[in-house]
């Protein structure tokens, strides 16, 4: 171990050394809470829930696999969150690494664009659920809402939106299942599973309407 490294570990930290330690601490913190941030502060929840319901509606069991669904949801989330990240990078990350602002100021600036995204996607009824009685009686000032209230409200809003989209996805496939089941019953094939017959028709229908394009496009536009 050289003398400079030993001095950094044993002596008081100054200037650039202190900034480096702070940056390492922030990086380790982000790595440890990364999955939590991904699930609760981005569009990932809506993406993965809707795609999972699509697989169930198609009745394709494990195709596409969980890995594919998670990977697609992840990259779609990167696409949706790109404008937010660019704003955070310009207002917070870059000035901090250029030593223009303090860490606390950088965190406050980073929270601003992210809060705007969360507020835009959160229903007021869900937000009011997590506010105190005094706050509910007053007009909600979104700029003053604490993160402890905004984040859970955003998550349940995302779940509600995802379930609404999943319901719309289920309808055509459910109708197709009912039609096939009725035909099999009328033909006396009561012991033949309707899913076995309807699955190819579901796949053909989904491919003919360019289902992946429609679904992914609807998911991305729903965050506009």
Walk me through what this model shows:
By secondary structure, the chain is an all-alpha fold. It has one domain (43-54, 61-221). It is 79% helix and 0% strand. The termini are far apart.
User: Beta-strand percentage?
Assistant: under 5%
Q: Enumerate how many helices there are, as a single number.
A: 10
Biggest sheet character: none
Tally of strands: 0
Quaternary state of this entry equals single chain
The residue fraction in helices comes out at: over 70%
- Mean pLDDT, nearest integer? 81
Q: Radius of gyration, rounded?
A: 25 Å
Question: What features would you highlight for this structure?
Answer:
single chain; 224 residues; mainly alpha; 10 helices
Give a brief outline of the structure.
The chain is an all-alpha fold and 224 residues long. The protein is built from ten helices and no strands.
SSE layout:
Blueprint: H1 3-10, H2 15-40, H3 44-58, H4 66-97, H5 103-121, H6 124-129, H7 133-137, H8 147-186, H9 194-208, H10 211-221
Helix pairs in contact: 3-4, 3-8, 4-5, 5-8, 8-9
């Amino acid at each position: 171990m050289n003398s400079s490294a030993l001095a950094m570990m044993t002596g008081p930290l100054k200037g650039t050394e202190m900034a480096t330690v702070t940056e390492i601490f922030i990086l380790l913190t982000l790595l440890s809470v990364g999955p939590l941030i991904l699930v609760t502060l981005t569009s990932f929840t809506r993406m993965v829930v809707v795609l999972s319901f699509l697989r169930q509606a198609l009745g394709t069991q494990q195709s596409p696999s969980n890995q594919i669904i998670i990977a697609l949801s992840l990259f779609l989330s990167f696409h949706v969150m790109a404008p937010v990240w660019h704003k955070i990078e310009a207002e917070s990350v870059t000035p901090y690494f250029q030593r223009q602002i303090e860490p606390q100021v950088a965190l406050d600036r980073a929270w601003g664009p992210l809060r705007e995204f969360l507020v835009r996607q959160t229903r007021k009824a869900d937000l009011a659920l997590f506010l105190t009685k005094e706050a509910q009686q007053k007009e909600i000032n979104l700029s003053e809402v604490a993160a402890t209230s905004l984040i859970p409200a955003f998550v349940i809003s995302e779940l509600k939106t995802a379930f609404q989209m999943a319901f719309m996805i289920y309808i055509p496939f459910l109708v197709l299942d009912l039609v096939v089941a009725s035909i099999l019953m009328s033909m006396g094939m009561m012991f033949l599973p309707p899913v076995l017959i309807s699955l190819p028709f579901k796949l053909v229908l989904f491919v003919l309407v360019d289902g992946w394009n429609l679904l992914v496009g609807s998911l991305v536009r729903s965050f506009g």
